[in-house]
Design brief:
With about 500 residues, the chain is α+β, with helices and mostly antiparallel strands. The chain is built from 19 helices and 20 strands.
């Protein structure tokens, strides 16, 4: 009866552990965490009409039924320019109403898991379910341990049977089979990754691929994009619009509105701020060349060339028609307030830092000197960036640095639209700036230390338990008690080790 009772308790504890881990993973899924990050106090059901106020964070998909306003859609598209809203226009969860009229109302079409944001994040959860290299190694170790224990058990039974001690042999082998269980490590390994991703989510980092936590401790070099990553990315364009003819103004505006480069966005913004209204031209040919500029062919051939040397360190461009300069454009960008402190932290953590930018040498060198970074690469095209980061970590724009992010050993997108970023990067920062980078690296290093600790604990327990069982110092009942206790020990060790990160 004791054996059957112990077996029932053993099965109960094992299934309870698996159930707990499943619930923990479910409750800490990044899609749920990200939804919590985006949601506000606003709520509604399908069919309701809700009034929105300026500054509201929208958490439903719907359509504008009355009123007008402006919406920040940058989390999806990466486009910083607000989108005008009027009756009949759609709105999506995860966007922010910048300003709106007092009668701005929305008819709710989708809520919760049916919204566009939720479906996007559920796609991420499918990638998160992918097993990491460490988890696969833990499973392999568990299989080998099972084979070893089974082999030892068979030979032990044969040994005791030959000496007429079959009952004693059964007791010892039974204790061996019960006490030596790889379940503790097999369950603790995914638990550690789940706790780490939950912690990073609370800090504003959405981890799409958990394997980045596996690879990050091996990274020695961290590459940063310049514009939009280390800087605000909100360039201010300075040029004399009035010096251009109406035709040339239309050409310049039509060129930049087709480009997604920050410099082009700043020129377009200058037109709006100076209230210069132009007509939109339809180009016979349009082309955007990385690190060069944008080219358009109409009756005349226009081009906006960015490769202009600047002694001041600021980015500059020239607007040309048939090779003749029409106006000179300069750009200014502010360094993010957290860039310098983060670089200092990373240097203290013994990481090699480098700026990897498609911008000109002068502004890149100026920023590197300001941040105390000795290594930098300018005028890099997407292919050159991808080659350099193949064995390193890349932190950049999810849109403009998509190729480099997809090829890097570890990658974090800190700018650009979420839809584009999660396609290329392993993690996406929900907050602007690079403050999440040292937190991520510290978490990854702590994950590896915790996994090593768990492996040592689990392996030591199994070998000590096997020795005590085979030598007759442990009976099956004690083995049944110690087996779940070992799993609990490894679980508690994981929680304690990751407590500082989770807080």
């Amino acid at each position: 009866q004791l054996y059957f009772d112990s077996l029932s308790a053993l099965i109960f504890l094992l299934l309870s552990s698996r159930y707990y881990l499943a619930r923990l993973r479910q409750n800490s899924q990044m899609n749920l965490g990200a939804l919590d990050f985006f949601t506000s106090n606003f709520s509604g059901e399908v069919g309701d009409r809700c009034v929105l106020q300026s500054g509201d964070l929208i958490d439903v998909d719907g359509v504008i039924r009355s009123g007008e306003g402006w919406c920040d859609h940058s989390r999806f598209s990466g486009e910083s320019k607000p989108i005008a809203l009027k009756a009949g226009d759609p709105v999506f969860a995860g966007t922010t109403l910048i300003s709106g009229s007092s009668d701005l109302s929305v008819e709710v079409l989708k809520t919760g898991n049916e919204t566009r944001l939720a479906k996007l994040l559920f796609k991420i959860s499918e990638v998160q379910a992918k097993r990491t290299v460490t988890e696969l190694r833990s499973d392999l170790w568990a299989k080998r341990l099972l084979i070893l224990v089974s082999t030892v058990s068979i030979f032990s039974l044969i040994y005791f049977a030959q000496r007429g001690l079959i009952v004693e042999g059964i007791h010892r082998v039974l204790a061996l089979l019960i006490v030596t269980c790889p379940c503790a490590l097999a369950l603790a390994t995914p638990l550690v990754f789940t706790l780490a991703m939950k912690s990073l989510m609370k800090n504003g980092l959405l981890v799409k691929d958990p394997s980045c936590l596996d690879f990050a401790p091996d990274v020695k070099v961290v590459y940063f994009d310049k514009t939009g990553t280390l800087t605000e990315g909100n360039l201010t364009a300075h040029f004399d619009i009035k010096s251009l003819t109406p035709q040339d103004q239309s050409a310049l505006f039509s060129l930049v509105r087709l480009s997604r480069h920050p410099a082009s966005r700043s020129i377009e913004k200058a037109f709006w701020e100076k209230k210069v209204h132009t007509r939109i031209l339809e180009w016979n040919h349009f082309e955007e060349v990385p690190n060069v500029g944008v080219l358009g062919e109409l009756n005349d051939s226009y081009s906006l060339i960015r490769a202009v040397h600047s002694l001041s360190g600021d980015s500059e461009s020239v607007f040309l028609r048939n090779g003749v300069e029409l106006c000179h454009i300069s750009f200014q960008d502010q360094v993010r307030s957290d860039s310098a402190p983060v670089m200092q932290k990373l240097r203290a953590m013994n990481y090699e830092l480098s700026i990897l930018s498609g911008d000109l040498t002068a502004p890149v060198q100026k920023l590197a000197n300001e941040l105390g970074i000795t290594s930098y690469f300018s005028t890099q095209n997407p292919e050159q960036k991808a080659i350099r980061v193949s064995k390193a970590m890349m932190v950049g724009d999810g849109v403009n640095d998509a190729l480099a992010l997809s090829q890097a050993r570890v990658s974090i997108a800190v700018q650009g639209g979420m839809e584009a970023a999660i396609q290329s990067a392993q993690a996406y920062s929900l907050k602007p700036g690079v403050s999440i980078v040292p937190i991520f690296l510290s978490t990854a290093n702590l994950v590896r230390k915790t996994l090593r600790q768990n492996f040592i604990l689990s392996t030591s327990y199994n070998f000590i338990g096997a020795f005590l069982s085979l030598t007759g110092h442990m009976n099956p009942l004690w083995a049944a008690v110690l087996m779940p206790a070992s799993a609990l020990t490894v679980f508690m060790a994981s929680f304690i080790r990751l407590r500082e990160v989770r807080s």
